Amino acid sequence: MKTYRAGVIGCSRMGGFIDNEVVGYARIALPYSHAAGYTTCDRTDLVACADLRADVMAEFGNLHGVPAQGQYTDYREMLAKENLDIVSVATQPEPRAAIVVDCANQGVKAIYAEKAMAASMADADAMVEAVERNGAILNLGTNRRYDTKYDRMKEIIDSGELGDLQQLIIYNVGPLFNNGSHFLDLILRLNDDEPAEWVQGHLPDGDSIIDGDILTGDPEAEGIIQFANGVKAYVLLTGRRSETEAICSLGTITAFNDGSEWQVRKVEPVGLRGRNELQTAAAPVTPPTSSTLRAVQDLVHALDTGQPPRGGVRAARAGNELIFGFIESHLLGGARVSLPLAKRTTRMVRDHTPRQPKYKPD
Ligand SMILES: NC(=O)c1ccc[n+]([C@@H]2O[C@H](COP(=O)([O-])OP(=O)(O)OC[C@H]3O[C@@H](n4cnc5c(N)ncnc54)[C@H](O)[C@@H]3O)[C@@H](O)[C@H]2O)c1
To answer: Whose C-alpha lies nearest to ligand 1, atom 4?
Structure first.
């Protein structure tokens, strides 16, 4: 079997060092960073990396075994010289589209792009166009799509034992690009990647960070998403962080604390008159597995077989469309906006200084 040559663009926390932030944290199974995913996967060799910060990249090289001749401050030079099969784009969203387009145009066949996909819908469209025109594939780093805990949630919904899926609830979507991208992707997956027809939203701090077509920050949001199959999602901003619920015609399934605990309730006849009520039922127990490794293995499987990846560039764009749906609805005073959006020029442009990654665990 072929071993695929992998490279990482953006060698900071998610690119190479985030494992050091979560050592001993039972909820996240390692490997977590892209680089650790490639060095753990027995079908990939991490041979090159690129970052504008040479000092951070040198530490990355030491940690992950990429020699100095495989380190580039210009990712285009890396793409031209290294004949890479899989490339990660673990930068912030603002530069992501240009880099992904360059990767696809340079013949990279598999791209593992971090979330949020893109800083505008125009950027997301350019990524879809370049990936598809070049016959490449892309998985977005929305880890819950590759997480066995949430696979189990989807299996229970799909089994029909709770009846038909009717509503999905995200209890705290958080900042849309940073945190919301994860949970919006999760509800897309739980609902079989059905298209969304419309979104209605409110950004509590939106007015202070939107200037014309420019967003100067990552806004929080609350609102409603209507899917084409009739399922509705409620996107909330409550104290229940990382909690998600599916409400079906005959029961509910709830993830507490990002799936470290679960509750399943089923409609049962109770009481003297046999009235139906929701009763607690057996909940799944699924130990954590590395969702980063599974995302890498999914790309390897797609390259081996020619089958589509689990995520794909269109599912990535659908999640980005929900983010911008909330923003456009807010700009229209909370009006319902139809998807796909007609306006694709609104763009996030933050004054972002990259973080200092943690080179060693505590
Ligand atoms: N999936 C997850 O669980 C998860 C967790 C953390 C972060 N993330 C995501 O990962 C991405 C990166 O986050 P971070 O905290 O590591 O970011 P960061 O801001 O600390 O680092 C970004 C890195 O990209 C580099 N970079 C920027 N432009 C570049 C270019 N043109 N060429 C080469 N390198 C370039 C910067 O120098 C920097 O080192 C973000 O989109 C974030 O949302 C995902």
So the answer is: 14
